[in-house]
Amino acid sequence: MKRLAVYCGSASPADPRYLELAHTVGVELAKRGIGVVYGGGRLGLMGAVAKGALEQGGEVIGVIPEALAGAAGRGGEVANHDCTQLHIVADMHERKAAFTRLSDGFLTIPGGVGTMDELWEAVSWAQLGYHAKPVGLLNAFGFYDHLIAFNSQMIATGFVRPAHQGIIMAESELDLLLARMAAHEPHTPIFAMKSSEL
Ligand code: AMP
Prior knowledge:
seven-stranded parallel beta sheet
């Protein structure tokens, strides 16, 4: 994996462990020679991932829609001009297409609604066959326990096909998660299934 799209919160939770985790993820990816593709912001966990990777001399590619690039965050604009490359795109559709095109996999760490939008799009596009890249979920501090339980509920009820039950790779340790993502074997996507299998 040369580059991973990293999805995470743009907020800064009061619990300092979250920003520390994001910074560590940036550092660890850079140490492994894995570039970061992310939302191009300098706020919250997003900014911390980028900072950690840049401090280690890692590659950081930001992709930000123009409406967000110029938005006034606390203390100024939200775009992170320290990135190795900063792509300013028209809208969220272009941004997410760029995340998929530029990366070799998707790594979600704790975040909010925007992070969920990005994670579930990566899962849904994997099921369909728009990409065959690994989708990793870092369940640090048990933050995603309920999401993992809900995913199991969708599987148990029959809303996720057997072939797609393993798309989300969830681990609480980054090392283990990256090893599983690197060993990823693509599943059969919906586009390759016969109608009788659906
Ligand atoms: P959230 O989890 O709701 O904080 O949203 C974070 C995700 O949405 C990130 O992965 C970004 O791609 C996008 N996003 C949300 N807010 C911003 C922001 N202020 N600057 C850049 N990207 C953002």
